[in-house]
Design brief:
This protein is of the alpha/beta class. Helix content is 38%, strand content 22%. The chain is globular, with a radius of gyration of 25 Å. The structure holds aspartic acid (ASP) and magnesium ion (MG).
């Protein structure tokens, strides 16, 4: 069996839903279990409706319009949709009267997005002659703790899923059991209250199902050809990465380009279930496969990402020389300011580190740091991260610095991640697109480090 997960943008309108239904219809032989997000921006629209309700106005217009228009175009009945919209209106009326939205009510509220989309899809599939059955996650076995808005699944979820779906997975093709279409992102706690697994949580729903049912693969369908070698807005000729490891994909996520939510990879890492990122606009393309370990020696470089608007902080102190506990004190200051550090490099008397621009009260941080060291702060910096096989780092670094030097670009700091899959370089924000283009050409261009000829 396989798991097929479709995100909001793949379900944004009737035309896309038709496309997705055709893809599912073509896979029935593989015993697909389908996981869906809410249509388009429905989750955000629901949160906006909550804000509006807090101001005393109850409106489900945006959500109603999208779902009814789509149902109309697909020719499926409104019954299920109307039923849920009534419940949603009642809930929003409650919010508007109480002028209060607890995390528990918020989860209840956003759950309507996924509950609507699975009903619409199952009904449309049926109308197309593909038997389907919708499931709210709790009917598919999903039980979580009560940490509303970012709940963790309880371990019994795995056994529940197996109990509910094993006969479907093992059925013979002539049995034609209905294809399960399950809400991503939501669950219920042991008191029966609806919870959510955090934004982007549908990926986790899909990977847990895949791991529990020992799926041949978990497919997450997007509208690009899998994982790309870099952001195509910077390098239009970016190409698909055929195979990457979970570690490599996690680094991609931390440095800006999210393929799968890092947390959602854990179930499949545990069981070694492969995940494939596929393009719904290019069904026959193989997409990108995410595996635990590369089978053969991989190309030296997998992908390049960049993140702008970071702050580089240089700390220099001769007091650090031969001292112990100095770094602990410095990191403690960041912890007290609740600032997370991205990249670090250190020498005997200095530490350089980067932090995210958005979350920092710089003057206060600087004042505290100055008790221990001379502090120099550089705004407007960028991190360019090369996801690569660090065992081949000498040749990667040689090739990188050769091309950067030839173009008069100076890198201000460099760090090689402990995960053995990333090298990060810090440069000015204004230079970062150029750095990405130059490196991409050097690695993936003709005669580049990753081209067959050079290996
Ligand atoms: N609909 C939810 C969100 O927008 C969950 C998901 O799409 O994975 O975050
Ligand atoms: Mg979404």
């Amino acid at each position: 069996m396989i798991v097929m997960k479709f995100g909001g943008s793949s379900l944004a309108n009737a035309e896309r839903i038709r496309r997705v239904a055709a893809i599912i219809g073509g896979m029935v032989e593989k015993r697909p279990v389908v996981v869906l997000s809410a249509m388009g921006d429905t989750t955000d629209d629901l949160l906006t409706a909550a804000d509006t309700a807090l101001k005393g106005i109850v409106s489900v217009d945006a959500v109603e319009k999208l779902h009814k228009e789509t149902a109309g175009l697909l020719g499926v009945p409104f019954t299920e949709i109307d039923f849920l919209l009534d419940e949603l209106r009642t809930l929003l009326t409650g919010v508007s009267m109480l002028k209060e939205l607890t995390p528990r009510s918020r989860d209840y509220l956003v759950s309507f997005g996924e509950r609507l989309s699975v009903r619409l899809m199952a009904s449309y599939l049926d109308s197309q002659g593909v038997r389907a059955k919708f499931y709210d996650a709790w009917d598919a076995g999903f039980v979580s703790d009560s940490n509303y808005t970012s709940a963790d699944l309880l371990p019994e979820t795995w056994a529940n899923i197996r109990r509910i779906f094993t006969s479907y997975c093992q059925s013979r093709s002539e049995d034609v059991l209905p294809v399960p279409v399950i809400t991503g992102f939501i669950a219920k706690d042991s008191n029966g209250f609806i919870t959510t697994l955090g934004r982007g949580g549908s990926d986790l729903t899909a990977t847990v199902i895949g791991a529990a049912l020992d799926a041949g693969e978990v497919q997450t369908w997007k509208d690009v050809d899998g994982i790309l070698t870099t952001d195509p807005r910077i390098v239009p000729s970016a190409r698909t990465v055929p195979v990457a490891t979970y570690d490599e994909v996690a680094e991609l996520a931390y440095f800006g380009s999210q393929v799968l939510h890092p947390r959602s990879m854990l179930p499949c890492i545990q069981t070694g279930t492969p995940v494939r990122v596929k393009n719904s606009y290019n069904v026959d393309a193989p997409g990108s496969l995410i595996v635990t370990k590369h089978e053969k020696t991989p190309d030296p470089v997998r992908a390049i990402t960049s993140k702008k608007n970071v702050i580089l902080i240089d700390l220099v102190s001769t007091r650090m020389l031969g001292q112990y506990g100095f770094l602990a004190k410095v990191f403690d200051i960041f912890a007290r300011h609740c600032i997370s550090i991205d990249v670090v490099a250190t020498s005997e008397v200095s530490v350089s580190l980067t932090v995210d621009f958005k979350r920092v009260n710089l003057p206060a941080l600087q004042k505290d740091l100055e008790e221990y060291a001379d502090v120099e702060i550089k705004n407007d910096m960028a991190i360019v991260t090369v996801i690569c096989d660090v065992r081949q780092s000498s040749s990667i670094l040689a090739a990188s610095f050769e091309v950067l030097a030839a173009n008069n670009i100076n890198i201000q700091m460099i760090s090689q991640g402990a995960s053995k899959v990333n090298i990060s370089m810090i440069c000015g924000s204004s230079e970062s697109d150029t750095v990405v283009r130059l490196l991409h050409e050097r690695y993936f261009g003709e005669g580049g480090l990753c081209s067959p000829k050079s290996r």
